[in-house]
Design a protein that fits this description.
- The chain is built from 5 helices and 4 strands; from the N terminus they run H-E-H-E-H-E-H-E-H.
- It is α/β, with parallel strands linked by helices.
- The chain has a single domain, classed as 3-Layer(aba) Sandwich (Rossmann fold), CATH 3.40.50.
- Helix 2 links the parallel strand 1 and strand 2.
- The chain is globular.
Amino acid sequence: MSPKAKAGKKAKAEAFEPTVIVFACNWCSYSGADLAGTSRFQYPTNSRIIRVMCSGRVDPSIIMKAFRNGADGVLVSGCHPADCHYINGNEKTEQRVKFLKRFMAQVGLDARRLHLEWISGSEGEKFARVTTEFTDTIREMGPNPLTTNDEAEV
């Protein structure tokens, strides 16, 4: 690879800003995101928050579709264990995320691109911190290898 090509590749990597999809439980995590915003806690603007009624409703196929459509990372957040408004939705989420992390390795995705976190409605600071740390991790990893075109649909 020529020095010019290496310099261009390095500049592109330095300019990389990841797209992070956040699936947030309506009852807890989305309220935590709202609190982060109203409290003016800073978190990356390249996070796209999708409100779901329960983290247990986030199907693995939806997460993989997000990756296929250009998401660089996916954060699933829900109620703390034993606090789920739908009794055991977060337990289902935990099982699904564990399964998906094993599956991701087989399709060429680093499992660190998927993260699960329990965030309550009163944890706005935690929402901002977790989102920032996850985005930083994804930024270090670089673009999603499944994205084949420069025009992501996410």
